[in-house]
Amino acid sequence: MNIKQIAKDTAKTLSSYLTYQALRTVLAQISETNPPLALWLQRFSADKVQDGEAYIQELFKEKPDLALRIMIVREHISEEVTEFLPEMVRTGIQQANMEHRRQHLERITQFDVQTSTPESEQQSTPNPNNQQPPTII
Description:
Number of strands: 0
CATH architecture of the domain at 3-76: Orthogonal Bundle
Oligomer: single chain
Largest sheet: none
CATH topology of the domain at 3-76: Non-ribosomal Peptide Synthetase Peptidyl Carrier Protein, Chain A
């Protein structure tokens, strides 16, 4: 396990996601002020934001002002988000793992109950008042 490579890949993925969020923010803003430009940006951006850096480079070639605007919004979002992110990720993973373990435990215990025989269920069922079951002749 190469922790440095995992961190590098995670940072790249997060950067691309923040680029996507910045694009959504800018699209919402310009759709109110300049709908034709918003439509152009939406069409231009379709299926291109997977790699945020490549997307920004390509946008710079077409509309540098929009690329700069998305970069500024992305930077602002990253400053706001990264403060809380490490603890949120840790807590979220811990809670999700606990929930997955709980569900797994429920599944395996339900499986054990379903595979038991009726005879073993009768033996394990407590008899109220310690009475013997009636004998059938």
